[in-house]
Specification:
five-stranded mixed β-sheet, 22% helix, elongated, four-stranded antiparallel β-sheet, alpha+beta
Length: 168
């Protein structure tokens, strides 16, 4: 696991496991919604999107390409640097963040307590192949904005080969 400016760069396999766990949580919640609505068929997409919205915060992002580098700017406000993990593959970028929130207040002799898990999960299919193993991969986080620089894979240059006559 590498770290850049507090943001953790994690192996794709670890992120894949987290993606499966997130998918399972969304599927369970979507089934709960389906069940609570009398198991009405035909609302599966609606139930799935509602479950996803309940469990995940949206991640707004911009992808730009310049000077042989893809630059990804993602909004993840409210998370600390240590909460954010990034995984890079040649054609995919995955951003994950999770924080635990606990609130407690006391009113008289009664204690009110809330515990909430807050998370984001975004998988981005990149428009071009990047060098995921390069030391030039950089991630920074400043005031709720995650910026990731990904060097593009250099395309092989075309070369013409001259045919030589067969020796006699």
């Amino acid at each position: 696991m590498r770290e850049f400016m507090g943001v953790q760069l994690v192996p794709a396999r670890l992120m894949f496991d987290r993606m499966n766990n997130t998918f399972d949580a969304i599927a369970r919640r979507a089934f709960e919604l389906f069940d609570s609505n009398g198991r009405q068929v035909g609302h599966d997409t609606e139930d799935w999107l509602r479950a996803e919205a309940e469990l995940l915060h949206p991640v707004h992002l911009d992808v730009a390409e310049a000077n042989g580098t893809l630059s990804v700017r993602a909004e993840v406000p409210g998370f600390a640097e240590q909460d954010i993990e990034v995984s890079v593959e040649p054609r995919r970028l995955t951003i994950s963040a999770r924080r635990e929130l606990a609130k407690a207040r006391q009113q008289g002799e009664t204690v009110y307590s809330e515990h909430c898990s807050d998370q984001v999960f975004r998988v981005v299919d990149l428009p071009t192949e990047v060098d995921a193993a390069s030391s030039a991969v950089k991630a920074t986080y400043d005031r709720g904005v995650l910026t990731i620089a990904l060097p593009k894979v250099q395309a092989a240059k075309r070369r013409q080969i001259k045919l030589e006559p067969k020796p006699a």
